[in-house]
């Protein structure tokens, strides 16, 4: 579990640019957005920030406390980390193999969550075939009030889940999962497939994918919504003699965003993004965002602080303009 | 300091200067037989501790470090009244031991610039006792440094407080020793921040209380010249602020608030003063 959460968090960088592997951008759904000088930055920002979301969200240091749709994934990650506890609790309260046991747990500021556990082999640990559904019953946490549910299905586990040497695959499904407070609400619907393998703290491979995941947030009455389709992100962290650790990311998928008038763009890394040591932003890597009529924005990491956006608005495969930004203006 | 914040610093500097000019004006206008003016210059070393807590009281972040800088003040004694105008600027850094927005513990540091200016008037109640009021302007610029996997960002805090205080002073030979206590409430308070990839935002801070205890010792070092050493303990407690909508390109994308915050300063000031 730990490596799943950590690795998935790392994969997020893919959102900035993402990752390797790719080379060709996937076909985009219609209607697609024409990329131009007026929306290139928005497209890059939205792709970066949305790519982050399934990977548990971009992180900032806590000074001011900030809440956005990423809280959905922060909570999902917390629940993922609690799966061993839910399974262990179920074991102590049930002896019927395959039975679903529901237990209620109090939330920090009121309300409860219900964990419905099906321990396929009744062994009390996370293993293939197990499933856990977490339902919020007006559960009030720091982020807001939780309603709806998240379902976790364990596809396979090798080794001890949560140790520093294991591999696992988990299907996560959001069913009207909502977090709300007086100033905002965030909602997720759809599924994510998470897989990770870890052999030591600096040898981690992770993959996150979805056929469709929709996330929306309402702030001061204004709603923004984003949908990822055919999305895959990967992260590979390896030891490095110079930097201690190097992490590379790949990203591919299609994004439909209200910031782009609910039109779609596709994205794919043509050169993996690579972060050195514990750098927050990648130092190298290229991602291409594609829109209508072959219009494109190329996002290239120049360093761990700067990124270049190049625009091909007329789709002739020639980038006619470029601008250099700080990574922190994108994400 | 980013260009975006320079004008705000200028605004703050103007406010502090305004307080100082107001004090000088009061002093200059006063007429009394025992009038005594004093100009003081000090070096200040401040042990600064900053803590943030969530609504359940759980600590989110702790910062600790030293700030250093100059302080300039002018005082006027006139009959039973004392007036004081003071301005200081302290710079330094604090070690940050906190967490990311996803709850991962992390170590970083924050660059800090703290400016304070105040105008103070006190009245002689009895031989050793004075009662006074103070109008303070405080500005804190804090920039959290990005570190492994988490982005930092700049914050600017600004608050104005009105305080009531009392002072006890005694003469020991050629020296003077004083103790003082002040209690302040805010007139206004705001916080400005620019989160990575987000528009600049202004947040309201929560309720605030400021308590200050001070001890000072003064000894003459020549005709009209004296040395003064002050130690203060200043505790500023700020309640959780209101949620504010954060935008990107004008579109709402998040909400944010400043959590409960406790700032404890222990400044030590070594002053050289001149009476005229």
Key descriptive features of the protein:
heterodimer, A: 331 residues, alpha+beta, 4 helices, 15 strands, 15% helix, globular, B: 276 residues, mainly beta, Lipocalin, 10-stranded antiparallel beta barrel, two-stranded antiparallel ribbon, disordered N terminus
Question: How is this structure best described in words?
Answer:
Chain A has one domain (2-330). Chain A has 4 helices and 15 strands. Chain A has helices spanning 2-11, 40-52, 70-93, 327-330; strands at 65-67, 100-106, 112-118, 131-141, 144-159, 165-180, 184-199, 204-219, 222-240, 244-257, 263-276, 284-290, 296-301, 306-312, 321-326. Chain A has a 14-stranded antiparallel β-sheet. Chain A is globular. By secondary structure, chain B is mainly beta. Chain B has one domain: Lipocalin. Chain B is 10% helix and 70% strand. In chain B, the strands form 2 sheets. Chain B has a 10-stranded antiparallel beta barrel with strand order 1-2-3-4-5-6-7-9-10-13. A two-stranded antiparallel sheet of chain B has the order 11-12. Chain B is elongated. Mean pLDDT of chain B is 87; it is low at 1-7. At the A-B interface, helix 2, strand 1, helix 3 and helix 4 of A face strand 3, strand 11 and strand 12 of B.
Dominant shape of chain B: elongated
The whole-number mean of residue pLDDT values of chain A reads 84
What is the arithmetic mean of pLDDT of chain B?
87
Beta percentage of chain A is: over 45%
Helicity level of chain B, as a percent range? Answer: under 10%
Strand order of the largest sheet of chain A: 2-3-4-5-6-7-8-9-10-11-12-13-14-15
Main structural class of chain B: mainly beta
Low-confidence stretches of chain B: 1-7
Number of domains of chain B: 1
Series of H and E elements of chain B = HEEEEEEEEEEEEE
CATH architecture annotation name of chain B: Beta Barrel
Distance between the termini of chain B: 38 Å
- Main interface pair? A-B, 45 and 47 residues
Strand order of the largest sheet of chain B: 1-2-3-4-5-6-7-9-10-13
Radius of gyration of chain B, in Å, reads 20 Å
Question: Strand-residue fraction of chain B?
Answer: over 45%
For the biggest sheet of chain A, the summary is: 14 strands, antiparallel
